[in-house]
Amino acid sequence: MFAMPDRAESPAARFTPVGRLAAAGTLVVGATFQVVAFALIPDFDKTVDRLEWIAAHDTQAQISKTADLLAVPFLVAGVVVYDAVGSISSASLGGTGSSSRAKAGCLGASEQRRA
User: Fold this and answer.
1) Distance (Å, whole) CA 83 – CA 96
2) What is the pTM of this model?
3) Most-buried pick from 9, 71, 104, 114 (CB within 10 A)?
């Protein structure tokens, strides 16, 4: 019923060991920064309550915002990782949601290699 695909056909098989480590690290670090950012600040129903909490807990709020900002480049790079893996194994789905011009700008080198 289910057949295991050949490992040599996997998109990850074309990555170097350093590339695999970098891709995995990018996904883990981005998610970790987001978890830290969300875990440090409680949920509030009203903006006034949030601002009062921030005024009372300045250091914790700054650490949360710093983690939030540090997560952004890793999350963007995570999209590139997912796109690189997806476009190798399924060319029709790899570029879904992105124009070819935007994709070529982000992945210029990898696009030229595949062509």
Assistant:
1) 9
2) 0.65
3) 71
